[in-house]
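Feature request, filed as a ticket because there's no other form

It would be nice if the structure record came with a short human-readable summary line next to the tokens. Right now we just get the raw output. Example of a typical job, pasted below so the devs can see what we mean:
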Amino acid sequence: MKWRVNENPYITHKYLCYYENERLNGYIIYTTQDRVVHIVDILASAKDERIFRGLFHKLKEVSSKEGMTQLKCYTASKNKFLIDMLRAGKFKNFTELFQFGGTKKKKRPSQLFVYVSEEIETELDFWDNQYWYLTDLAKEGRPYTARLIG
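Raw output as currently delivered:
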């Protein structure tokens, strides 16, 4: 974490920490680029669901106050616990939300979760960035703004 986060000369990372009785019990490491929040890492003591909910809630609040337009969090499909925590935090899987693939052969959805604020009218154009928060977890060694080709 020292070289990747704290001493990274290209990206400034921020910590959102959760303390109880002066003890660190959880954190989110994130960065912001182009009005987008990228979650880099998240941890909660003993996988405490209450801590995850509190961290996600505070990050959404801070992001909104700072004028961020998206909140991104990628996760591996095998990380069922984090997927459940994202869903509990009212994030939605991007692929499921937009129902990509139509009637083609059913495949496992990509693990990209989206938070749709209650203030957003779902009848509006979902593709307009001003209407959504999107989330980005652990892109190990890759720039947060890099797009996959293909």
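Something like this underneath would help us a lot:
The chain has one domain: 2-134.
The first helix runs from residue 2 to 6.
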